Amino acid sequence: MKIYTRTGDKGHTGVIGGRVRKDDLQVEAYGTVDELNSFVGVAMAGMDEVKFADMLEDLLNIQHELFDCGSDLAILDKAKREYKVTADMAEKLEALIDKYDAETPDITRFILPGGSASSAALHVCRTVCRRAERRVVTLAERQDINEHVRTYLNRLSDLFFTIARTANFREGRTDVEYARSAEVFRRKSDR
C-alpha cells in the first residue's frame, strides 16, 4: 500500500460520505482532535512507566477514544455510519477526574501551567483540547454533529487539568498559583 494517493493535491480531502476542502471547518475540527492525540502521545512518552502506570493506561485509552471522536467528526453523511462516541464515555472521564483529584491537595486559586515536565505536557494537552472543543462548537453551528463528542472534549480538558496536577503531586512538585488570582475554587471539603 502506498502512503501517498495524490487525491488531495487540489486541496480537497475525503470524509465519510464525500469530499470537502482541506480548510473546511469539519477538517479543522477533526484535525485539531488529531493534533491533540499527538500531544497526548508526547506527554505519555515523557512519563515514568512505574510512577504513572495507571495514568498511562488511561491516556492510551483516551488516544483510542480521540480516534473515535475524529471519526465521528469526519462524517459528512450520517447515513454512511453510526457514531462511535457515546454519553457513557464522558461519564467515565468524570470518574477518572474524581479518582485523580482525590490525590491532589486543595486548590483555591488559578494555577500556572508547568511544574514537572509531565505536568507541563499535560497542560499543553488541556489547552489543545479546549481549542478542539471550540472548533467542534463552530462546526456544530454549521452542520449536525455527534453532540457527545463536544461533551467528551469538554470533560477531557478537565481531566487533563486534574492529571497535570496529579503529575506534579506524584513528582513532589507544588503547583504554582497565579499570584494575582483571587480565591476562585472551593476546597474539596466544601464541595
Automatic annotation (TrEMBL):
Its EC number is 2.5.1.17. It catalyses: 2 cob(II)yrinate a,c diamide + reduced [electron-transfer flavoprotein] + 2 ATP = 2 adenosylcob(III)yrinate a,c-diamide + 2 triphosphate + oxidized [electron-transfer flavoprotein] + 3 H(+); 2 cob(II)alamin + reduced [electron-transfer flavoprotein] + 2 ATP = 2 adenosylcob(III)alamin + 2 triphosphate + oxidized [electron-transfer flavoprotein] + 3 H(+). Pathway: Cofactor biosynthesis; adenosylcobalamin biosynthesis; adenosylcobalamin from cob(II)yrinate a,c-diamide: step 2/7. The keyword Signal does not apply. It is an enzyme of class 2 (transferase). GO terms for biological process: cobalamin biosynthetic process. Keywords: ATP-binding, Cobalamin biosynthesis, Nucleotide-binding, Transferase. Residues 3-167 form the Cobalamin adenosyltransferase-like domain. One of its GO terms (molecular function) is corrinoid adenosyltransferase activity. The keyword Membrane does not apply. Belongs to the Cob(I)alamin adenosyltransferase family. Homotrimer. This is Corrinoid adenosyltransferase.
